[in-house]
TrEMBL record, chain A:
Protein name (database record): Amino acid ABC transporter permease
Organism of derivation: Pararhodobacter aggregans
Keyword Transmembrane: yes
Keyword entries, A-Z: Cell membrane, Membrane, Transmembrane, Transmembrane helix, Transport
Coiled-coil positions: none
UniProtKB/TrEMBL annotation, chain B:
One of the record's GO molecular function terms: ATP binding
SMART domains (alphabetical): AAA
Keywords, ordered alphabetically: ATP-binding, Nucleotide-binding, Transport
Family membership noted in the UniProt record: Belongs to the ABC transporter superfamily.
TM helices/strands, residue ranges: none
Name of the protein in question: Glutamine ABC transporter ATP-binding protein
ABC transporter domain ranges (all copies): 4-238
Length: 362, 243
């Protein structure tokens, strides 16, 4: 015989509160904590003079370069040269054009944030707007004066190189990743060969090949614009790194996904595009972000082949003899710009990862 | 016309002989349950029927279309044959509704409105229309498997293959999936089901097939199969699983 005891249903309870660790114990609780606390304090003390330089003794606004010779930071110079750093030697009376390009890139990025909107249509809009941006920078139509790419510079060049190299590199990366996993020997060998070759070279080397060697190898009369060659080098570089990241994602997609698509009769390429890739990319958002950030910063290397990105423009600005060699301030300003771009990418990727996760797992 | 006819089918994985001289004929409307110990080749057999696995010799004809390397034949066969997997294999990045609608659009070029209407109709039929906006990861295993059945039905197949559809489910969810399958059988669907659910086999099967070591050892209507198994290996197997 079974016996059943009547229990009233128990109300849900909150877990007991966890006791707070006192601050002193957190900071000096054991030898290691104490040591780290002291080291941190020492670091803060050591940085105080830098704070003096950067804020208290700094010259914020002046028209007179000589006012900057007292030893503090010369932010007045950054203010004076901001346009040069941001736009390089682009004709000053046309600065609205690169400014508009920066605005367009920002607007496009903002409009592309939500994964709901991703698809073939958004890709097409990106393609068209990038062409429009390049046209706007170049001019030569509708009464816009022609500005050759040798005069482009600063932030728009940095942003365009980063967006275009990642954007054009991405489909190649997908092709390389699929090729590397292919059962057919030719695509596999080509993919592996290209990936390993480019990965084995430093970016500086690839840039030199593209900007110096390539024009020598091309037949007489064939010229590709220097900015274009630089972009090609960055794109190839981005593609092989993205390819390896995407390959990791492809390996993480369950084999059953492809089988289900096959059994439903979905054609191969549609399966790749609609079923496999979206899942593969969701799995590798953190390393993709990493590659994107690295590529944004890699664009600064184009300076050494004579393309005026933001860093190059900054160096050119700092060479003005009227001001007392404000390299530190220039580099800090440029560094701040890079930091803002990269932290934005980073924060976005964290949000994206969370959104995707919330969506597919309750 | 026979729904499926298999003759002299052989398959090897490397040197491992996975299927040996399989002959099998399935008439339209027939319900077949395939059982046998693990590694006996039952999953391999039904995966050959829509060419998720290729075979090395013998012939498979589905609704009059021979299954060969010809891609046109292959897609014709896959249009006629739906499959439900042990691990559901729903597309985790798509909602339940999209899981059912998108394959129609991609495989058949169905217009979206029509595809979604059909998806809703079949989700209704497996009795989870209210979950259509959710993602698979937000559903229970039983619900996911019912979505997978609806997704396959949306392609309006003539034959449905089930590869251990309840083996990955918690015990309390097996019933809801089996009931969905029984309803499908009652509607006259041609079904080949690999399962160890012997209650289901008794209830719906026209024929139970017992496989061992890559061969069909015995096939009989359920009352004979369970009541009077001929083969010693069948009796041994039934003793193991019927308790």
């Amino acid at each position: 015989m079974t016996s059943v005891t009547e229990h009233p249903p128990l109300a849900a309870q909150t877990p007991p509160a966890k006791a707070r660790t006192p601050l002193v114990r957190l900071l000096f609780g054991d030898a290691l904590s104490a040591l780290l606390t002291l080291l941190a304090l020492g670091l803060i003390l050591a940085l105080l003079p830098a704070l003096d330089w950067a804020i208290l003794d700094a010259v914020w606004r002046t028209e007179d370069p000589d006012a900057c010779r007292q030893g503090g930071a010369c932010w007045a110079y950054v203010h004076d040269k901001a346009r040069l750093i941001l736009f390089g030697i682009y004709p000053p009376d046309q600065h609205w054009r690169p400014l508009l390009v920066i605005g367009l890139i920002l607007a496009m990025v903002l409009a592309s944030l939500s994964p709901r909107l991703w698809g073939a249509r958004l890709l097409a809009i990106w393609g068209l707007s990038l062409l429009a941006m390049l046209g706007l920078m170049q001019g030569g139509f509708l009464g816009l004066p022609l500005v050759p790419t040798s005069q482009w510079g600063g932030l728009p060049v940095t942003l365009l190189l980063a967006v275009l190299s990642l954007g054009i590199g991405f489909p190649f990366a997908v092709a390389l990743a699929l090729g590397r996993r292919s059962a057919l020997p030719v695509p596999r060998l080509v993919s592996v060969g290209l990936i390993e070759l480019v990965r084995g070279l430093p970016l500086v080397g690839v840039l030199f090949v593209a900007s110096i060697l390539l024009p020598l190898l091309l037949p007489e009369g064939w010229t590709i614009d220097k900015l274009g060659r630089t972009l090609a080098a960055l794109t190839v570089f981005a593609a092989v790194y993205l390819a390896e990241v995407i390959r990791g994602g492809l390996q993480g997609v369950d084999k059953g996904q492809g089988e289900a698509a096959q059994a439903l009769g979905i054609p191969f390429w549609k399966t790749i595009w609609h079923i496999i890739l979206p899942q593969a990319i969701q799995k590798v958002i953190p390393p993709l972000t990493n590659t994107a950030i690295i590529m944004v910063k890699n664009t600064s290397l184009v300076m050494i082949v004579g393309v005026f990105d933001m860093l190059g423009a900054g160096r050119a600005a700092a060479a003005d003899p009227a001001w007392p060699a404000p390299y530190t301030e220039t580099y800090l300003f440029v560094a701040l710009m890079y930091f803002l771009i990269c932290i934005a990418i980073s924060l976005y990727s964290r949000w994206l990862e969370q959104t995707v996760k919330n969506r597919s797992h309750s | 016309m026979t729904a499926i006819s298999v003759s002299g089918l052989n398959k090897w994985y490397g040197s491992y002989h996975a299927l040996r001289d399989i002959d099998l004929t399935v008439e339209p409307g027939e319900r077949i349950v395939v059982c046998g110990p693990s590694g006996s080749g039952k999953s391999t057999l039904i995966r050959c029927l829509n060419r998720l696995e290729d075979h090395q010799s013998g012939s498979i004809v589905v609704n009059g279309t021979p299954l060969t390397d010809d891609l046109k034949n292959l897609s014709a066969v896959r249009r006629e044959v739906g499959m439900v997997f042990q691990h559901f294999n729903l597309f985790p990045h798509l909602t339940v509704l999209e899981n059912c609608a998108l394959p129609q659009i991609l495989a058949r070029g169905t217009r979206r409105a029509e595809a979604e209407a059909r998806a809703r109709r079949y989700l209704e039929r497996v009795r989870i229309p209210e979950q259509s906006a959710k993602f698979p990861g937000q559903l229970s295993g039983g619900q996911q498997q019912r979505v997978a059945i609806a997704r396959a039905l949306c392609m309006e197949p003539k034959v449905m293959l089930f590869d251990e559809p309840t083996s990955a489910l918690d015990p309390e969810m097996i019933k809801e999936v089996l009931e969905t399958m029984i309803a499908l059988a009652d509607d006259g669907m041609t079904m080949i089901v690999v399962t160890h659910e012997m209650g289901f086999a008794r209830r719906v099967a026209d024929r139970v097939i017992f496989m061992d070591a890559g061969q069909i050892v015995e096939q009989a209507p359920p009352e004979d199969f369970f009541g009077n198994p001929h083969h010693a290996r069948t009796r041994e197997f039934l003793e193991q699983i019927v308790h």
